Amino acid sequence: MLSEPKPFEEAVAALRGRRRLPTALGHAELSRIGPALRRRALILARVAQVEILDKVDRSMQRLVSGASTGAGDYTNPATIRAELKQLLAEIDYQPEPDRVGTISDLRTDQRLNLIIDTESKLAAGRGQYAQATDPDSLAVFPCQELIRVESREVPRGYERRKGQIIAREPDYWPKRWQAAGGQMHDGRMIARVDDPVWAKLSRFGLPHPPFDFNSGMGIQLVRRSEAIRLGVIQKGDVVVASPAESADAIASAPAPAVGTQFLSALEQVGFTLREGLLTLA
Amino acid sequence: MRAAAVIANDTASPAVKQLRFQAHGRRAFAAMGASVAESIRRHLVQRDLIPNQLGGRRTHFFSSAARQTFWVAREDEAEVSIAKDGIRQRLLGGIIRPVRKKALTIPVSPEAYGRRASEFGSELRLVKLSGGADGQTAGLLVLGEGPHAPAMYVLRTQVHQAPDPSVLPADADLKAAAVAGLEELRLAEMP
Q: Could you tell me the residue range of the domain that residue B52 belongs to?
Protein backbone atom coordinates (compact mmCIF):
# COMPACT_ATOMS: atom_id res chain seq x y z
CA MET A 1 0.00 0.00 0.00
CA LEU A 2 1.11 3.58 -0.55
CA SER A 3 1.78 5.82 2.40
CA GLU A 4 3.10 9.31 3.03
CA PRO A 5 6.64 9.35 1.64
CA LYS A 6 9.77 10.39 3.50
CA PRO A 7 13.16 11.83 2.55
CA PHE A 8 16.12 9.43 2.24
CA GLU A 9 17.56 10.37 5.62
CA GLU A 10 20.92 8.58 5.30
CA ALA A 11 21.58 10.32 1.97
CA VAL A 12 20.54 13.75 3.25
CA ALA A 13 22.73 13.18 6.33
CA ALA A 14 25.74 12.78 4.01
CA LEU A 15 25.28 16.41 2.95
CA ARG A 16 24.25 17.96 6.22
CA GLY A 17 26.70 20.29 7.98
CA ARG A 18 29.41 20.14 5.36
CA ARG A 19 32.00 22.90 5.46
CA ARG A 20 31.97 24.93 2.26
CA LEU A 21 35.55 25.57 1.20
CA PRO A 22 36.13 28.03 -1.63
CA THR A 23 39.30 27.38 -3.59
CA ALA A 24 41.14 28.43 -6.72
CA LEU A 25 42.91 25.06 -6.84
CA GLY A 26 42.26 22.59 -9.63
CA HIS A 27 41.18 18.97 -9.57
CA ALA A 28 44.71 17.55 -9.67
CA GLU A 29 45.82 19.46 -6.57
CA LEU A 30 42.59 18.73 -4.69
CA SER A 31 42.84 15.00 -5.34
CA ARG A 32 45.42 14.92 -2.51
CA ILE A 33 42.58 15.41 -0.04
CA GLY A 34 41.48 12.01 1.20
CA PRO A 35 37.92 10.66 1.32
CA ALA A 36 37.42 11.24 5.03
CA LEU A 37 38.01 14.97 4.64
CA ARG A 38 36.21 15.28 1.33
CA ARG A 39 33.13 13.78 2.91
CA ARG A 40 33.02 16.59 5.45
CA ALA A 41 33.45 19.48 3.06
CA LEU A 42 32.07 20.82 -0.17
CA ILE A 43 35.06 21.65 -2.35
CA LEU A 44 34.62 22.25 -6.07
CA ALA A 45 37.70 22.69 -8.24
CA ARG A 46 38.33 26.37 -9.08
CA VAL A 47 35.17 27.59 -7.35
CA ALA A 48 36.25 30.42 -5.06
CA GLN A 49 32.87 32.13 -4.61
CA VAL A 50 31.15 31.11 -1.40
CA GLU A 51 27.70 32.04 -2.74
CA ILE A 52 28.08 29.44 -5.50
CA LEU A 53 29.05 26.78 -2.97
CA ASP A 54 26.09 27.77 -0.78
CA LYS A 55 23.71 27.46 -3.70
CA VAL A 56 25.14 24.09 -4.79
CA ASP A 57 24.95 22.75 -1.24
CA ARG A 58 21.35 23.83 -0.68
CA SER A 59 20.30 22.60 -4.13
CA MET A 60 21.84 19.18 -3.54
CA GLN A 61 19.97 18.85 -0.25
CA ARG A 62 16.71 19.60 -2.08
CA LEU A 63 17.50 17.19 -4.89
CA VAL A 64 18.59 14.33 -2.64
CA SER A 65 15.68 14.71 -0.22
CA GLY A 66 13.25 14.55 -3.17
CA ALA A 67 11.37 17.58 -1.82
CA SER A 68 8.89 19.51 -3.91
CA THR A 69 5.70 21.47 -3.59
CA GLY A 70 3.91 19.08 -5.94
CA ALA A 71 3.31 18.26 -9.58
CA GLY A 72 4.50 21.04 -11.86
CA ASP A 73 7.15 22.26 -9.42
CA TYR A 74 9.71 19.52 -9.36
CA THR A 75 13.32 19.67 -8.31
CA ASN A 76 15.49 17.87 -10.82
CA PRO A 77 18.97 18.34 -12.28
CA ALA A 78 17.61 20.62 -15.02
CA THR A 79 15.89 22.99 -12.59
CA ILE A 80 19.02 23.13 -10.44
CA ARG A 81 21.22 23.76 -13.46
CA ALA A 82 18.93 26.62 -14.54
CA GLU A 83 19.00 28.12 -11.03
CA LEU A 84 22.79 27.93 -10.91
CA LYS A 85 23.04 29.62 -14.30
CA GLN A 86 20.79 32.39 -13.01
CA LEU A 87 23.02 32.85 -9.97
CA LEU A 88 26.15 32.95 -12.15
CA ALA A 89 24.54 35.69 -14.25
CA GLU A 90 23.50 37.66 -11.15
CA ILE A 91 26.99 37.66 -9.62
CA ASP A 92 28.58 38.20 -13.03
CA TYR A 93 30.70 35.07 -12.71
CA GLN A 94 33.66 34.99 -15.07
CA PRO A 95 36.00 32.01 -15.51
CA GLU A 96 39.74 32.50 -15.83
CA PRO A 97 40.32 33.88 -19.37
CA ASP A 98 42.21 30.81 -20.57
CA ARG A 99 39.46 28.47 -19.31
CA VAL A 100 36.43 29.96 -21.05
CA GLY A 101 34.23 27.19 -22.45
CA THR A 102 36.28 24.40 -20.85
CA ILE A 103 35.18 21.96 -18.14
CA SER A 104 36.48 24.55 -15.62
CA ASP A 105 33.93 27.12 -16.82
CA LEU A 106 30.89 26.96 -14.55
CA ARG A 107 28.70 28.48 -17.24
CA THR A 108 28.93 25.33 -19.36
CA ASP A 109 26.31 22.57 -19.12
CA GLN A 110 29.15 20.06 -19.03
CA ARG A 111 30.60 21.44 -15.78
CA LEU A 112 27.27 22.04 -14.06
CA ASN A 113 26.05 18.57 -15.00
CA LEU A 114 29.28 17.11 -13.63
CA ILE A 115 28.83 18.89 -10.30
CA ILE A 116 25.16 17.97 -9.95
CA ASP A 117 25.71 14.37 -11.07
CA THR A 118 28.73 13.74 -8.85
CA GLU A 119 27.45 15.47 -5.72
CA SER A 120 23.99 13.88 -5.85
CA LYS A 121 25.39 10.43 -6.62
CA LEU A 122 27.93 10.66 -3.79
CA ALA A 123 25.16 11.51 -1.32
CA ALA A 124 22.86 8.75 -2.60
CA GLY A 125 25.78 6.30 -2.68
CA ARG A 126 26.61 7.15 0.91
CA GLY A 127 22.98 6.61 1.87
CA GLN A 128 22.80 3.29 0.04
CA TYR A 129 26.04 2.19 1.69
CA ALA A 130 24.60 2.97 5.13
CA GLN A 131 21.57 0.84 4.23
CA ALA A 132 23.65 -2.02 2.82
CA THR A 133 25.82 -2.16 5.95
CA ASP A 134 22.88 -2.49 8.32
CA PRO A 135 23.58 -5.82 10.11
CA ASP A 136 20.16 -7.23 9.19
CA SER A 137 20.59 -6.24 5.56
CA LEU A 138 24.07 -7.81 5.55
CA ALA A 139 22.55 -11.07 6.75
CA VAL A 140 20.35 -11.12 3.63
CA PHE A 141 22.70 -9.39 1.18
CA PRO A 142 26.30 -9.98 2.32
CA CYS A 143 27.74 -9.26 -1.14
CA GLN A 144 27.26 -6.86 -4.00
CA GLU A 145 27.99 -6.80 -7.71
CA LEU A 146 29.45 -4.09 -9.91
CA ILE A 147 27.05 -3.56 -12.81
CA ARG A 148 26.13 -0.92 -15.36
CA VAL A 149 23.15 1.05 -14.05
CA GLU A 150 23.11 3.85 -16.64
CA SER A 151 23.84 3.67 -20.33
CA ARG A 152 26.54 5.92 -21.75
CA GLU A 153 26.88 7.05 -25.33
CA VAL A 154 30.61 6.47 -25.09
CA PRO A 155 31.38 4.23 -22.09
CA ARG A 156 34.89 4.01 -20.66
CA GLY A 157 36.95 1.74 -22.88
CA TYR A 158 35.23 3.06 -26.03
CA GLU A 159 35.77 6.17 -28.13
CA ARG A 160 33.93 8.10 -30.81
CA ARG A 161 35.77 8.12 -34.16
CA LYS A 162 34.21 9.64 -37.28
CA GLY A 163 30.75 9.35 -35.77
CA GLN A 164 31.25 5.68 -34.83
CA ILE A 165 31.66 4.24 -31.36
CA ILE A 166 34.84 2.14 -31.42
CA ALA A 167 35.81 -0.40 -28.77
CA ARG A 168 39.31 0.42 -27.55
CA GLU A 169 39.25 -1.59 -24.32
CA PRO A 170 35.81 -3.17 -23.98
CA ASP A 171 36.77 -4.98 -20.78
CA TYR A 172 37.83 -1.72 -19.13
CA TRP A 173 35.76 -2.32 -15.96
CA PRO A 174 36.69 -6.00 -15.43
CA LYS A 175 40.36 -4.98 -15.77
CA ARG A 176 39.96 -2.10 -13.35
CA TRP A 177 38.08 -4.42 -11.00
CA GLN A 178 40.85 -7.00 -11.02
CA ALA A 179 43.53 -4.33 -10.69
CA ALA A 180 41.75 -3.18 -7.52
CA GLY A 181 41.95 -6.73 -6.14
CA GLY A 182 38.51 -7.93 -7.19
CA GLN A 183 37.81 -11.48 -8.29
CA MET A 184 35.49 -12.65 -11.04
CA HIS A 185 32.75 -15.10 -10.09
CA ASP A 186 31.09 -16.75 -13.06
CA GLY A 187 32.20 -13.76 -15.11
CA ARG A 188 30.62 -11.32 -12.66
CA MET A 189 32.29 -8.66 -10.53
CA ILE A 190 31.05 -9.65 -7.06
CA ALA A 191 32.61 -9.13 -3.64
CA ARG A 192 31.58 -8.95 -0.01
CA VAL A 193 30.10 -5.60 0.97
CA ASP A 194 33.01 -5.09 3.40
CA ASP A 195 35.70 -5.99 0.84
CA PRO A 196 38.38 -3.28 0.39
CA VAL A 197 38.02 -3.67 -3.39
CA TRP A 198 35.14 -1.19 -3.39
CA ALA A 199 37.19 1.72 -2.05
CA LYS A 200 40.19 0.74 -4.18
CA LEU A 201 38.00 0.72 -7.28
CA SER A 202 36.77 4.24 -6.57
CA ARG A 203 38.47 7.36 -7.90
CA PHE A 204 37.17 9.04 -4.74
CA GLY A 205 38.50 6.35 -2.36
CA LEU A 206 34.98 5.60 -1.15
CA PRO A 207 33.40 2.15 -0.81
CA HIS A 208 30.25 3.08 -2.73
CA PRO A 209 29.17 4.54 -6.09
CA PRO A 210 29.88 6.64 -7.99
CA PHE A 211 33.23 5.02 -8.70
CA ASP A 212 34.33 7.73 -11.12
CA PHE A 213 33.25 11.00 -12.70
CA ASN A 214 30.35 10.58 -15.14
CA SER A 215 30.34 6.86 -14.50
CA GLY A 216 27.30 4.76 -15.34
CA MET A 217 28.52 1.90 -13.15
CA GLY A 218 26.82 1.09 -9.88
CA ILE A 219 26.03 -1.87 -7.68
CA GLN A 220 23.29 -4.37 -7.05
CA LEU A 221 23.05 -6.40 -3.88
CA VAL A 222 23.63 -10.16 -4.04
CA ARG A 223 21.56 -12.53 -1.90
CA ARG A 224 23.29 -14.83 0.58
CA SER A 225 22.15 -18.02 -1.18
CA GLU A 226 23.51 -16.77 -4.53
CA ALA A 227 26.79 -15.58 -2.97
CA ILE A 228 27.29 -19.04 -1.42
CA ARG A 229 26.45 -20.76 -4.71
CA LEU A 230 29.00 -18.60 -6.54
CA GLY A 231 31.62 -19.23 -3.87
CA VAL A 232 32.02 -15.59 -2.84
CA ILE A 233 31.27 -16.53 0.78
CA GLN A 234 30.87 -19.75 2.71
CA LYS A 235 27.80 -20.88 4.58
CA GLY A 236 27.82 -19.30 8.03
CA ASP A 237 30.07 -16.39 7.04
CA VAL A 238 29.16 -13.17 8.79
CA VAL A 239 29.85 -9.88 7.03
CA VAL A 240 30.16 -6.92 9.38
CA ALA A 241 30.60 -3.26 8.51
CA SER A 242 33.31 -1.32 10.32
CA PRO A 243 31.84 0.81 13.13
CA ALA A 244 33.06 3.99 11.42
CA GLU A 245 30.96 3.17 8.36
CA SER A 246 27.75 2.23 10.14
CA ALA A 247 24.51 4.07 9.52
CA ASP A 248 24.53 5.34 13.12
CA ALA A 249 28.06 6.68 12.78
CA ILE A 250 27.11 8.49 9.58
CA ALA A 251 23.98 9.98 11.13
CA SER A 252 25.81 11.11 14.28
CA ALA A 253 28.92 12.49 12.55
CA PRO A 254 29.89 15.78 14.19
CA ALA A 255 29.19 18.96 12.25
CA PRO A 256 32.53 19.77 10.65
CA ALA A 257 32.02 23.51 10.21
CA VAL A 258 33.67 24.30 13.52
CA GLY A 259 36.68 22.11 13.76
CA THR A 260 40.28 22.99 14.37
CA GLN A 261 40.74 19.25 14.04
CA PHE A 262 39.36 19.43 10.52
CA LEU A 263 41.69 22.29 9.60
CA SER A 264 44.72 20.60 11.09
CA ALA A 265 43.83 17.45 9.17
CA LEU A 266 43.81 19.53 6.01
CA GLU A 267 47.20 21.02 6.96
CA GLN A 268 48.61 17.54 7.39
CA VAL A 269 47.92 16.86 3.73
CA GLY A 270 49.47 20.17 2.66
CA PHE A 271 46.56 22.62 2.59
CA THR A 272 45.74 25.76 4.53
CA LEU A 273 42.95 28.31 4.71
CA ARG A 274 44.22 31.73 3.63
CA GLU A 275 41.71 34.61 3.72
CA GLY A 276 38.89 32.09 3.53
CA LEU A 277 40.32 30.30 0.50
CA LEU A 278 41.63 26.75 0.55
CA THR A 279 45.19 26.95 -0.78
CA LEU A 280 48.35 24.90 -0.77
CA ALA A 281 50.40 25.54 2.39
CA MET B 1 6.55 13.93 -4.89
CA ARG B 2 7.98 10.74 -3.54
CA ALA B 3 6.36 7.32 -3.27
CA ALA B 4 6.37 4.84 -0.43
CA ALA B 5 4.99 1.44 0.47
CA VAL B 6 4.57 -0.24 3.82
CA ILE B 7 4.92 -3.90 4.80
CA ALA B 8 3.08 -4.42 8.06
CA ASN B 9 1.69 -7.33 10.06
CA ASP B 10 -1.82 -6.79 8.75
CA THR B 11 -0.73 -6.64 5.08
CA ALA B 12 1.61 -9.63 5.16
CA SER B 13 0.80 -12.59 2.91
CA PRO B 14 0.34 -16.10 4.38
CA ALA B 15 3.82 -17.06 3.11
CA VAL B 16 5.36 -14.12 4.95
CA LYS B 17 3.38 -14.89 8.10
CA GLN B 18 4.60 -18.49 7.97
CA LEU B 19 8.25 -17.48 7.71
CA ARG B 20 7.82 -14.88 10.41
CA PHE B 21 7.25 -17.63 12.94
CA GLN B 22 11.01 -18.07 12.70
CA ALA B 23 12.13 -14.44 12.54
CA HIS B 24 10.70 -11.64 14.59
CA GLY B 25 10.63 -7.93 15.11
CA ARG B 26 12.91 -5.42 13.49
CA ARG B 27 15.25 -8.08 12.09
CA ALA B 28 12.46 -9.75 10.11
CA PHE B 29 11.09 -6.47 8.82
CA ALA B 30 14.58 -5.26 7.91
CA ALA B 31 15.12 -8.44 5.87
CA MET B 32 11.84 -7.90 4.06
CA GLY B 33 12.35 -4.16 3.62
CA ALA B 34 15.89 -4.56 2.27
CA SER B 35 14.75 -7.27 -0.13
CA VAL B 36 11.73 -5.33 -1.41
CA ALA B 37 13.84 -2.19 -1.82
CA GLU B 38 16.45 -4.12 -3.83
CA SER B 39 13.71 -5.59 -6.01
CA ILE B 40 12.42 -2.08 -6.73
CA ARG B 41 15.94 -0.78 -7.44
CA ARG B 42 16.57 -3.54 -9.98
CA HIS B 43 13.23 -2.86 -11.64
CA LEU B 44 13.99 0.86 -11.89
CA VAL B 45 17.46 0.23 -13.32
CA GLN B 46 15.85 -1.93 -16.01
CA ARG B 47 13.31 0.82 -16.72
CA ASP B 48 16.17 3.25 -17.17
CA LEU B 49 17.45 1.25 -20.13
CA ILE B 50 14.41 2.33 -22.18
CA PRO B 51 15.38 5.44 -24.21
CA ASN B 52 13.20 8.52 -23.86
CA GLN B 53 10.52 9.06 -26.51
CA LEU B 54 12.16 12.07 -28.11
CA GLY B 55 15.58 10.44 -28.31
CA GLY B 56 17.23 13.44 -26.67
CA ARG B 57 19.81 13.55 -23.93
CA ARG B 58 19.15 11.00 -21.19
CA THR B 59 18.11 12.31 -17.80
CA HIS B 60 18.32 8.81 -16.26
CA PHE B 61 15.23 9.53 -14.20
CA PHE B 62 14.65 5.89 -13.27
CA SER B 63 18.26 5.15 -12.43
CA SER B 64 18.22 8.16 -10.15
CA ALA B 65 14.99 6.86 -8.57
CA ALA B 66 16.75 3.53 -7.97
CA ARG B 67 19.53 5.31 -6.06
CA GLN B 68 16.93 7.10 -3.98
CA THR B 69 15.05 3.92 -3.00
CA PHE B 70 15.47 3.04 0.65
CA TRP B 71 13.85 1.13 3.50
CA VAL B 72 13.16 1.79 7.14
CA ALA B 73 12.39 -1.10 9.52
CA ARG B 74 10.74 -1.03 12.91
CA GLU B 75 9.56 -3.74 15.32
CA ASP B 76 6.23 -4.16 13.57
CA GLU B 77 6.63 -2.87 10.03
CA ALA B 78 8.99 -1.92 7.24
CA GLU B 79 8.56 0.98 4.88
CA VAL B 80 10.12 1.29 1.44
CA SER B 81 10.28 4.76 -0.09
CA ILE B 82 11.53 6.29 -3.32
CA ALA B 83 12.74 9.79 -2.51
CA LYS B 84 12.52 10.95 -6.09
CA ASP B 85 10.55 13.97 -7.12
CA GLY B 86 7.97 13.03 -9.78
CA ILE B 87 7.93 9.25 -9.26
CA ARG B 88 4.57 9.23 -7.50
CA GLN B 89 3.08 11.38 -10.27
CA ARG B 90 4.27 8.87 -12.87
CA LEU B 91 2.91 5.96 -10.89
CA LEU B 92 -0.50 7.40 -10.08
CA GLY B 93 -0.89 9.91 -12.92
CA GLY B 94 -3.12 12.96 -12.67
CA ILE B 95 -3.35 16.56 -13.74
CA ILE B 96 -0.25 18.74 -13.69
CA ARG B 97 -0.69 22.49 -13.60
CA PRO B 98 2.00 25.18 -13.61
CA VAL B 99 2.98 26.34 -10.14
CA ARG B 100 5.20 29.37 -10.57
CA LYS B 101 4.64 30.12 -14.27
CA LYS B 102 1.58 30.65 -16.42
CA ALA B 103 2.18 27.54 -18.55
CA LEU B 104 3.97 24.21 -18.51
CA THR B 105 6.77 23.82 -21.04
CA ILE B 106 6.51 20.41 -22.66
CA PRO B 107 9.61 19.51 -24.69
CA VAL B 108 8.86 18.43 -28.25
CA SER B 109 12.43 18.39 -29.56
CA PRO B 110 15.34 16.15 -28.52
CA GLU B 111 17.36 19.34 -27.96
CA ALA B 112 14.84 20.52 -25.37
CA TYR B 113 14.61 17.26 -23.46
CA GLY B 114 16.22 17.55 -20.01
CA ARG B 115 16.68 21.31 -20.41
CA ARG B 116 14.71 24.20 -18.96
CA ALA B 117 13.38 26.77 -21.42
CA SER B 118 15.26 29.45 -19.49
CA GLU B 119 18.54 27.77 -20.40
CA PHE B 120 18.05 28.75 -24.03
CA GLY B 121 18.27 32.41 -22.94
CA SER B 122 16.90 34.82 -25.53
CA GLU B 123 17.12 32.27 -28.35
CA LEU B 124 13.51 31.12 -27.87
CA ARG B 125 10.57 32.98 -29.39
CA LEU B 126 6.94 32.71 -28.35
CA VAL B 127 4.36 31.80 -30.96
CA LYS B 128 0.89 32.24 -29.45
CA LEU B 129 -1.80 29.68 -30.27
CA SER B 130 -5.47 29.91 -29.49
CA GLY B 131 -6.04 26.91 -27.25
CA GLY B 132 -5.65 23.94 -29.55
CA ALA B 133 -8.16 21.09 -29.79
CA ASP B 134 -8.53 20.75 -26.01
CA GLY B 135 -8.26 24.45 -25.22
CA GLN B 136 -5.14 23.92 -23.11
CA THR B 137 -2.36 24.78 -25.54
CA ALA B 138 -1.21 28.35 -25.06
CA GLY B 139 1.57 28.45 -27.64
CA LEU B 140 4.93 27.25 -28.81
CA LEU B 141 8.48 28.22 -27.96
CA VAL B 142 10.50 28.07 -31.16
CA LEU B 143 14.24 28.34 -31.62
CA GLY B 144 15.32 31.36 -33.65
CA GLU B 145 13.52 33.50 -36.18
CA GLY B 146 11.57 32.77 -39.35
CA PRO B 147 8.54 30.70 -40.27
CA HIS B 148 10.48 27.42 -40.17
CA ALA B 149 12.05 27.93 -36.74
CA PRO B 150 11.84 24.53 -34.99
CA ALA B 151 9.49 24.16 -32.03
CA MET B 152 11.31 23.31 -28.80
CA TYR B 153 8.40 23.37 -26.35
CA VAL B 154 4.62 23.39 -26.38
CA LEU B 155 3.12 25.67 -23.71
CA ARG B 156 0.19 24.03 -21.95
CA THR B 157 -2.05 25.37 -19.21
CA GLN B 158 -2.33 21.83 -17.86
CA VAL B 159 -1.59 18.25 -18.86
CA HIS B 160 -3.16 14.99 -17.81
CA GLN B 161 -0.65 12.25 -17.19
CA ALA B 162 -1.94 8.69 -17.40
CA PRO B 163 -1.03 6.41 -14.48
CA ASP B 164 1.83 4.02 -15.14
CA PRO B 165 1.71 1.03 -12.79
CA SER B 166 4.79 -0.43 -14.49
CA VAL B 167 6.89 2.17 -12.65
CA LEU B 168 6.99 -0.37 -9.81
CA PRO B 169 7.32 -4.17 -9.94
CA ALA B 170 4.03 -6.08 -9.78
CA ASP B 171 2.59 -6.62 -6.29
CA ALA B 172 3.24 -10.36 -6.62
CA ASP B 173 6.93 -9.66 -7.28
CA LEU B 174 7.17 -7.39 -4.25
CA LYS B 175 5.55 -10.03 -2.06
CA ALA B 176 7.94 -12.63 -3.44
CA ALA B 177 10.84 -10.32 -2.62
CA ALA B 178 9.60 -9.99 0.98
CA VAL B 179 9.42 -13.78 1.29
CA ALA B 180 12.88 -14.16 -0.26
CA GLY B 181 14.26 -11.70 2.31
CA LEU B 182 12.97 -13.88 5.13
CA GLU B 183 14.30 -17.04 3.49
CA GLU B 184 17.76 -15.49 3.16
CA LEU B 185 17.60 -14.43 6.80
CA ARG B 186 16.73 -18.00 7.80
CA LEU B 187 19.73 -19.19 5.80
CA ALA B 188 21.96 -16.68 7.61
CA GLU B 189 20.77 -17.94 10.97
CA MET B 190 21.35 -21.63 10.21
CA PRO B 191 24.23 -23.08 12.22
A: 3-93+163-188
